[in-house]
Design goal:
The complex is a heterodimer of chains A (671) and B (144).
Chain A (H helix, E strand, L loop, with lengths): L1 H28 L2 H30 L6 H6 L6 H6 L5 H22 L8 H22 L6 E3 L2 E2 L15 H16 L1 H12 L6 H32 L9 H26 L3 H24 L13 H22 L16 H33 L3 E2 L2 H21 L10 H24 L5 H32 L3 H11 L1 H21 L5 E8 L3 E4 L2 E12 L3 E12 L2 E6 L2 E5 L5 E4 L1 E4 L3 E10 L6 E10 L2 H18 L16 H9 L1
Antiparallel strand pairs in A: 1-2, 4-13, 5-6, 6-7, 7-8, 7-9, 9-10, 11-12, 12-13
Helix pairs in contact in A: 1-2, 1-6, 2-5, 5-6, 5-7, 6-8, 7-9, 8-9, 8-11, 9-10, 9-19, 10-11, 10-13, 11-12, 13-14, 14-16, 15-16, 16-17, 16-18, 17-18, 18-19
Chain B lengths: L1 H28 L1 E4 L1 H6 L9 E7 L5 E3 L2 E8 L4 E7 L14 E8 L5 E9 L15 E2 L5
Classes of the chains: A alpha+beta (671), B alpha+beta (144).
Amino acid sequence: METLGAFSLLLALCVAAYAFLSSVAGALANKPFLKVSGERAVYGVFLLTTLASGILVAMLMTSDFRMAYVVSRSNRAMPLVYKFAAWWGGQEGSLLLWSWLLSCFSAVVVWTSRNKFRQMMPWVIAVLMFTQVFFCILNVFVEPPFQVLTVSKGVTSVPDGQGLNPLLQYWLMAIHPPALYLGYVGFIVPFAFAMASLITRQPGEAWIHTTRKWSLITWGFQSMGIMLGQGWAYAVLGWGGYWGWDPVENASLLPWITATAFLHSVMMQEKKGMMKVWNMVLVSATFLLCIFGTFLTRSGVVSSVHAFAQSSLGAWFLGFLVIATSFTAWLILTRLDYLKSEAQLESVLSRESSFLFNNLILLASCFAVLWGTMFPVITEYVMGEKITVGAPFFNKVNIPIGLFLLLLTGVGPLIAWRRSSWESLKRAFRWPTLGGLALAAVLLAFGVRHFYALVSFGLCAFVAITVVMEFWKGSRAIALKNNMNLLRAMVELTHRNTRRYGGYLVHMGIVIMFIGYTGAAFNKDTTKEVKIGDRFTLGSYDLHVKQVNDGENDNYVWQRATIAIFKHGAFLGELSPERRVYKASEQPTSEVAIRRRLNEDLYLNFASMSQQTERAAIIQAYIFPLVSWIWIGFYVLMAGTMVCLIPSKVKLAYAKTEVVGVYARETAKAK
Amino acid sequence: MKTYARFAVLVVAIIGTLVWLAASGISESKTYYKTISELKSASGAEAAKRVRVTGDVVPGSIRREGERVHFVICEKERNLTLNVVYTGKDPLPDTFRDSAQAMADGKMSADGTFHASSIAAKCPSKYEAAPGGKPAARPLNSQS
């Protein structure tokens, strides 16, 4: 079996290399035979990587403890779902997942575009397969998943494995890596189309239209991956937080930021023919940052709490990044003629300008995060001394950026294209502004003194009102005209222009998430050594430590504190934070207990038993206000993204149709 | 042209503010990587800096006293140890235990103990080799 797995990976590498070469040769020599065989080879790669992945999963599921990978990531007592999740629980397996997802995407692209874009397709395949070759090389030579255990040249096996890292044995973690990878890997498709359109000197925006869905879906997966990571960090990691500006988290955030900028600035190109070079840069940057993120996570260049073990992967990734970056840069620079802007900025008060600032500020944030993450590496290189920056740096830069973006979220969609007058702005923003100020004033009156929190809540109200007003105005007009009730009119309105109203929903999700993030300004916490039977207080909560029990099951040994919660004398329920030691890996974990409510979460961690006092537990208690809104906002954001993907009922009237660019002008001249 | 001048002013203002924020953020939170031996020989202004020090947790040294956690980390090559007291608010990472490699951020105090405000830890060898008691099986072709 392992031989078949390893062999199919090796074969996948060869077939991918063939697909790359025959596509390039077919495109250059214009030989349809070679192009078609390149396309077929893509399906071949997909089948081969699927076979390899299937074998690895089967080995994990059947606990084949001759295999090094299975021994180090799985054990018999582990639930079946985590045995499956062990596929991406380690370096080798997760790289195989990368390869497999990439081959899936490539196959889907070839299948759905098999009768379209005859000119571009060979190059699209070339870009996809070049990357595939790279990952297959890693699978075959650098981090092979199919290794058997040996003792002096003889194959051996062990009775039981060491188990999946217990921190990963949690349902969110089982789906967080695939979601994030779908987002990471998926962005290669828009990138491949962009490159192909540059190579073949395609006029117009064909690549943007074809990849709009891809960009949106992968953006959705990236958002989902990041959010699942936050949910996991909050509930499992026991940092007492959802975000710690850890290098690995930053790595996942970077491409998301540039992808967000890209989704916005392509609208400028679609509607006004502006920012063409910029969009090329953004789509390339996003793809390269996806690779860079994978590199950061796996190479151990920057120390992180949840990085993979150090390995020789770094040099490979660096090599790939250098090749890809220089090729992309060369391509864009030599094709600048095809990327000329067709319109100019006319006013600071215009939709164009709001997009411009949106992009500027997103990129600034991306740069700041990148700079902060790489700071130890940079300072070591430049000054010979390693210096790191912490959360205060990231927060200081990114909180104002976030708030400014929030403002643009409200302003952007309502401001007119080309230029806007102060009069019309006053009309559009009178109520939202008043609403925002009113909320800030009320909060101030109730004793909120945190400056950023006041600004944030004010802006949230401002944006929420603009979005609600848009829905209200549009749907009321439809309701009156067609004699519908308001709710149906709203559905109808959204259906007529899903992109616009889906976008509003996404914005609304962002607003709700900001409400949740702002809650962090009011966190409270305490750490107490409490005798069993005693009480302590945090905020308005009265916490009564009732008992501590022990026990064990096949997978782990546990110790659990039972704590009764009272508020103003009323009994609210019990929470049982737990400490576990997993048997196979001998790793302790703390299972925090959280009482989730819309206004605030009560978060309890059982740190340990006291070593000084008999029968006393050390309990850390936290109040995290409004955290639930982060997850709610995320669901709204996902719903909005899905709405955007539904085709609009009415064909967009303002979509540009004329063929533009140098190509068009040249053909016009020739005539 | 006037429009572009306006844009330029706005862009410069935004970038300027961000650079200023970033600079102050860096000076506020910059932390120097030091080894235990460097930390022991540091003096004066050097010793007052925020530093990040890494070492292996001496088995049996972790001791909780209410809100504080005391432990000792060591630098194996030179046989140096450092007493650390953790006073941060976040729960300690699960990977923080005897023999783990710990990374402590904080400052030296006059009495020679290191006051850490955050701790990160990892078990470097956990997944590399088979745990003790089992045959020393290793993956085929592995470099280690």
